[in-house]
Amino acid sequence: MTAESVIRLNDVNFSYDGPPVLEKVTLSIAERDLVCVIGPNGGGKSTLLKIMLGLIEPSSGTVEVCGQVPAKTRKQIGYMPQYAHLDPRFPVTVFDVVLMGRLGRARSWGPYPWADKAAALDALEEVGLADMKSRPLSALSGGQRQRVLIARALACAPRILLLDEPMASLDPKVQDDLHHLLRKLNERLTVVMVSHDLGFVSLFFRTVVCVNHKVHTHPCQELTEKQVADMYGRAVRLLHHTRGGEAGGRS
């Protein structure tokens, strides 16, 4: 593994007792890169993240995260799953949810120690919700809940942040705010996010990973509509930066 890479997959194959989900995947993600993973439903995006996390093992090939097998580096990864199993009606506070990110750390049973509580407060401060720590989760908007879940992922003090479709069902303004938050977090973390929002990929990310059983990596500015259309099987319009820094469409 090179010094510039924090995640490396080499010739990885995976299947769920059926047709291949991922085939011959070779991928390298540099430290502090800002990566968007795109692809059609069923193409293997979530499976790719689970392999990076070590939640599942490839049928063949090798995976390294921070120079080791994923099972040994999970504490260096903050993960926000696609579907968080949190009932917003459950009587839990914002602070309680973020503290869950400290579970599994080396500590005895019982109340959370001061260090865990301090880490949770720092995470809430970073996502801009420190003043809401005592509110019930049910009192928050959808965008605020997503920030709470990002804070939960940050509470373990990770080196890498993996997010599986955190923008789903959010309105465009809230999505933009979260994108800007991720860019700020990227100043100190490697950020990898799965997204279906193809239109604005190049506005917020530097690298795009296209996943449809096989994986191809491109700098965002070099990604073309034809490449995406071939992957999705339909025409797609991408939005790219202009020289003046504003978005410009391509048809």
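The above is record 1. Record 2 follows with the same two-line structure.
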Amino acid sequence: MRNDRFTHILFDLDGTLTDSAEGIINCVIHALRCLGKPIPDQKKLFELIGPPLTVNFHDHLGLSEEDTAEAVKRYRERYAEVGLFENRPYEGIEDMLIRLREAGFVLAVATSKPEVFSVRILEKFGLAKYFDTVCGSGLDGSLDTKAEVVEETLRRLGVTDRAAALLVGDRKYDAIGASRAGIRCIGAGWGFAEEGELEGAGALPVAADPAELADILIGGGL
């Protein structure tokens, strides 16, 4: 039987449901080359998977506001045509979603990725049918923080009791956003976080793989 203390499970997308590293990194490189900017090393590029694009280009890569806006534009040009499908679901994700739905949970996606791209990705891989709503940022700059995305997802689902929902994510940004929205975060340990990152941000427990996550959520081990 599932845990009756929560009924709604929100999922991050990149690094949690799908391995999107190839597409994101290729599009960041494309954007920087278009602007004539230096390309970071591989370790730095992997650190850019998870945060909103404006945070990546402005805060993490030090671009000006003007260059950040242009970099986001160039990134999305390539992403919309090629990058979004340089991507694949992690092994065991669909089985996990099936188990959670059969256990009676309401599932949703809450991602910093633009919603229009997120829906296309989930439909491409046959995962959209498992979610009651897919919520992401807007191409107009709306919902540009994880906390805002989580808040909007809960609004769409009609969730008012914050104890009834939790977020599953693979980066500290997920844990921080969930906390600011008043819900807890469970770590997806198969994603892009560095060692200790999720625990340090309060995402506990951290599941090693999708099957273990389903065991935790269904078994009430929280």
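The mean pLDDT is 94.
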